[in-house]
C-alpha cells in the first residue's frame, strides 16, 4: 500500500528566509502524481504545486519549488523569500487513483 | 472559480444522533471525496465517488455511509454519532484523471458530545 510520510510536525522560518519541508512516500507504481497543499487558518486547502512522476524536471511555481527524487521517493518543498502569509499547515499528497496525504507540517513564519 | 461548499462550518451533535454532512460542487466534477482530518494523522479518506450513485470505501469507512444521488452533491452520513467521530471533515472534488488537482471545501468541524 502507498504511504506518505512528513517527518517534521512543525517548522519555523524567519521572514524572507528559505525553508524546506520534507516528504517521503512509498509506492511500487511508476506512474503517479505528487502534490503539495497548503491549509491556512481559514482551513481552505489550496494547491501549492504539482509534480508528475514521469517528468524529471522539478516543478516550480514562483517562490515555491520542489526537489523530486524519484529513486529515493522523496518530494520536498522549498519556499524561498518566506512571507507571513506562508504560515499554514502543509500537506504532501500522492495520487495514482485516490489521494493519500501525509500527516502535515505546521509552518510558522517569524517577522 | 471552482467552488466546493460544505453546508456547515461548525456542528455540535449528541452521541447516537444521525448526522448529515452535505457537500456541493459547481464544476461538474465526476469525483467527490470525504476526508477526516485529525492532528498528527493528516487527511484520511472515508469514502469517495466516481459517479452518481457510485461509492467506494476509503481507508476508514467504518461508522460512515455516503449518498450521491446527484452529480453535484455528495453527502456523508453518520448513522449513530460517537465521540470518536469528533473531527474536522473535508469534502473535495475533481475531474477524473490522476493529474487533476482536488478542490476542497472549507471543512466542517464536528463535535460529538
Task: Detail the topology: elements first, then pairings.
The complex is a heterodimer of chains A (111) and B (113).
Chain A: E1 3-5, E2 10-14, E3 19-21, E4 24-26, E5 33-39, E6 46-52, E7 60-61, E8 64-69, E9 74-79, E10 88-95, E11 99-101, E12 105-110
Parallel strand pairs in A: 2-12
Antiparallel strand pairs in A: 1-4, 3-9, 5-6, 5-10, 7-8, 8-9, 10-11, 10-12
Chain B: E1 4-6, E2 10-13, E3 19-21, E4 23-25, E5 31-38, E6 42-49, E7 56-57, E8 65-70, E9 73-78, E10 87-94, E11 103-104, E12 108-112
Parallel strand pairs in B: 2-12
Antiparallel strand pairs in B: 1-4, 3-9, 5-6, 5-10, 6-7, 8-9, 10-11, 10-12
Structural notes for this entry:
The complex is a heterodimer of chains A (111) and B (113). Chain A has one domain: Sandwich (Immunoglobulin-like). Chain A contains no helices and twelve strands. In chain A, the strands form three sheets. In chain A, strands 2, 5, 6, 10, 11 and 12 form a six-stranded mixed sheet that branches. In chain A, strands 3-9-8-7 form a four-stranded antiparallel sheet, with no helix packed on it. Chain A is mainly β and 111 residues long. Chain A is globular. The N and C termini of chain A lie far apart (41 Å). With 113 residues, chain B is mainly β. Chain B has a single domain, classed as Immunoglobulins (Immunoglobulin-like). Helices cover 0% and strands 51% of the residues of chain B. Chain B has no helices and twelve strands. In chain B, strands 2, 5, 6, 7, 10, 11 and 12 form a seven-stranded mixed sheet that branches. In chain B, a hairpin with a 6-residue loop joins β6 and β7. Chains A and B meet through β5, β6 and β11 of A and β6 and β10 of B.
Amino acid at each position: 500500500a502507498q504511504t506518505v510520510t512528513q517527518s517534521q510536525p512543525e517548522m519555523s522560518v524567519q521572514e524572507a528566509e528559505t525553508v524546506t519541508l520534507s516528504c517521503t512516500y512509498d509506492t511500487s507504481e511508476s506512474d503517479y502524481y505528487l502534490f503539495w497543499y497548503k491549509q491556512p487558518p481559514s482551513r481552505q486547502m489550496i494547491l501549492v504545486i504539482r509534480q508528475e512522476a514521469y517528468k524529471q524536471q522539478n516543478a516550480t511555481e514562483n517562490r515555491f519549488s520542489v526537489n523530486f527524487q524519484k529513486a529515493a521517493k522523496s518530494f520536498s518543498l522549498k519556499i524561498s523569500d518566506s512571507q507571513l502569509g506562508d504560515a499554514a499547515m502543509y500537506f504532501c499528497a500522492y495520487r495514482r487513483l485516490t489521494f493519500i496525504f501525509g500527516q502535515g507540517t505546521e509552518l510558522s513564519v517569524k517577522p | 472559480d471552482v467552488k466546493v461548499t460544505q453546508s456547515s462550518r461548525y456542528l455540535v451533535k449528541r452521541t447516537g444522533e444521525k448526522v448529515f454532512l452535505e457537500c456541493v460542487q459547481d464544476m461538474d466534477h465526476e469525483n467527490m471525496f470525504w476526508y477526516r482530518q485529525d492532528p498528527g494523522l493528516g487527511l484520511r479518506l472515508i469514502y469517495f465517488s466516481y459517479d452518481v450513485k457510485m461509492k467506494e470505501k476509503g481507508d476508514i469507512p467504518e461508522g460512515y455511509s455516503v449518498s450521491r444521488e446527484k452529480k453535484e452533491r455528495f453527502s456523508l452520513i453518520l448513522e449513530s454519532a460517537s465521540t470518536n467521530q469528533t473531527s474536522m471533515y473535508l469534502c473535495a472534488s475533481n475531474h477524473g484523471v490522476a493529474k487533476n488537482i482536488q478542490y476542497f471545501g472549507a471543512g466542517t468541524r464536528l463535535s460529538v458530545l
